[in-house]
Amino acid sequence: MGRKDTLLSVKKIISVFLVLSMLLALTACVRYSVGCTVNSDGTVNLTYLYALSDLTDGNGDTGWAEEKKEFESKGWSTRDYTGDGSSESSSYNGFIASKGGIPIDQVETEVRALGEGFESFTFSFDDGVYTIDWDTESVDKMVSEEGSSLGDLSTYGGYMKFTLELPIKPIDENATSSKGSLLEWDLSKMNEPIHCEFELPMPSDEDEDEEEEAVSKNSKKKNTKGASFNKKLLIVLIVVFAALVVGGAILAVFIHKKKKKDEFTAPITVPAHAPQPIAPQNQVPNEQPSYVPQDPMPSPYSSSGLPDPFTSGASTSYTPGLPDPFSGNKDNGQDQPDP
Asked: Over the Cα atoms of the chain, what is R_g?
């Protein structure tokens, strides 16, 4: 084999490798999701997502204009969708369509009108129980025709799923994963049709749920208020205790000062020479009390030795040779000159 043949062989190998790489890149690059939310008032909200990797969709996000117009013609609202892929160099481009407030008895008609992949979707009602059945085999076939492998969706950041959110827990279901009343089916792993049975909540059930929620909220509020009240009560008790201590200290100082002041105050006594009233004895009503005269004032004559002319019974004799001051008679018949 010459050098030229060797080069041709290498070019063939490289070409085959590039083709295989491109095919691998086109594999499992789809995001497909149908969401259904059942409200307690008997209405339903639907969402639909379809996107392909930029490696798969050669037209980019301009390739979805026709699909969006089709949904919009049926009363759905649409918007563009972009999402990161499995690597920094790849991303997903597509669209999301949504429609809300659909009466529950019209859901089957609304979904089937979407066309391919929804021919087997049923939403029935019997004896108070709603049943959803959906054979997704046609959806899997549609996606496979786009060049996607259902076994390796997660490897490339893709997925295919159906989600159902109910107001209460379902009666029966075969979801691949569930959390309370939120159910999810991974279409790439389903070997049987989707199936779910559920009921709408009765008014009493809603009241019980609301009552339980209200009780829970009230309990939390009471606990919060109780903790807050305990803190406030503790603060009040501390303030009252401090006030009592301070008040007691002030009162003790006041009492001590008053007691000390009383010890140094001189007693008040009555003078010994003060006249004392004489208590009346056998006093007749409306009769003036008797007056006991005090000792008479001493006469100036008593100290001179001369008789007191004003004293009762005093002698009126006089010394001879002197005039009688109290008589108009003249001594020995002779007039005496006036004093």
From this structure: 65
If we measure between CA atoms, which residue out of 163, 36, 164, 33 comes closest to residue 100?
36
Measured on CA atoms in the order 301, 303, 307, 313, is the torsion positive or negative? positive
Q: What percent of the chain has pLDDT over 90?
A: 31
pLDDT tens-place string over residues 86-134: 655 468 899 999 999 999 999 999 999 988 889 999 999 999 999 999 9
- Print burial letters for 14-29: b (CB count within 10 Å at least 16), e (below 16): eeeeeeeeeeeebbbb
Secondary structure class of 103 (helix, strand, coil): strand
Residue 137: per-residue pLDDT = 84
**The total number of residues written for the chain in this structure:** 339
CB 47 within 8 A of CB 96: yes
Q: What angle do CA 267, 270, 276 make, to 5 degrees?
A: 160
How far is it, in rounded angstroms, from Cα 10 to Cα 264?
A: 129
Residue 219 and residue 209: Cα distance in Å, rounded?
A: 15
Q: How far is CA 256 from CA 252, 259, 261, 264, in A?
A: 6, 5, 9, 13
Q: What's CA 299's distance to the chain center, in Å?
A: 107
Maximum alpha-carbon separation in the chain: 220
Q: 158, 29 in Cβ contact below 8 A? A: yes
CB-count burial class (<10 Å; 0-12, 13-18, 19+) for 166: buried
Residues paired with residue 210 on neighbouring β-strands, in sequence order: none
> Taking Cα atoms as reference points, which of 161, 156, 207, 199 lies closest to residue 33?
161
Question: 10 Å Cβ neighbour count for 134?
Answer: 24
| pTM assigned to the model | 0.52
Q: What is the per-residue DSSP string for 68-129?
A: HHHHHHTT-EEEEEEEE-SSTT-EEEEEEEEEEEEEGGGHHHHHHTT-TT-TT-EEEEETTE
Identify the sign of the CA torsion 199, 204, 210, 215. Answer: negative
Is residue 194 within 8 Å of 174, Cβ to Cβ?
yes
**What are the respective helix, strand and coil percentages of the chain, to the nearest 5?**
40, 20, 40
Q: Which two tokens stand for residue 126?
A: 């019997």
Distance CA 95, CA 50 (A): 6
